[in-house]
What does this fold into?
Amino acid sequence: MAGTLFVVATPIGHLDDFSRRAEQTLKTCQIIAAEDTRHSGHLLSAYSINTPTTPCHDHNEGQKVPELIARMQQGDHVSLISDAGTPLISDPGFRLVRAAHEAGIRVVPVPGACAAISALSASGLPSDRFSFEGFLPAKTHARKQTLDSLKKDTRTLIFYEAPHRILDSLIDLNEVFGKDRQACIAREITKTFETIKKATLGELLEFVKNDSNQERGEIVLVVGGYDAEQEVENTEATDKLLKRLLQDLPVKAAAQLASELTGIKKNELYQRALQLKD
It folds into this structure.
């Protein structure tokens, strides 16, 4: 009989967020495939789990998969864990799970903590339809391109972000999505300095700018989806503003001032002002 691959969720911070089933699974399997064996050692020690571990991460997964598949084909049970949360959610493990299916090996999820779902549940934003987007590109141009492709997505969007990039990402989100889009920053979930703050993107940008502590730890950004009705209202309000400014200012100056007041790109407002002027 072939063994089983267990995909086991682990705590994202608070050690008590570890199910009894997950604990027993890790204790009774033959080997634990861990993203970082040293990091996972703290959790295993806390729960007196003495099962042998082996590293399985982005840099060695290709070589490790055949070895683990062979062990399961010989009857061993293998547990897959990441450093924190649910494996495969912006963490390694996809190639192992895919290979297990291809080899006819049973794959069993052991549910538990997940930062993306935890943030969504506490965000106060619609959760009936959402899209997990993982980490945004590190470079500004690629990040803006990605955001531009998501600008009109009506689903709630969930992003992971590194602390050293959170300000840059919020700046780009404000520029592409607009400062009035509803959003939530969820930082250090379940940990000592947990922060859950719902506000507009513009307000969140100021919040992070004014508190350097918000640029630390694990960060999830939850962003409300595109609202066509709100867009119409915003467009009508912007047109009203531009018409009033054009009564006293040339087109370029009106667009510049409107951009400063609304956060909308100056070039967009300039083109719209030309249309209104005609």
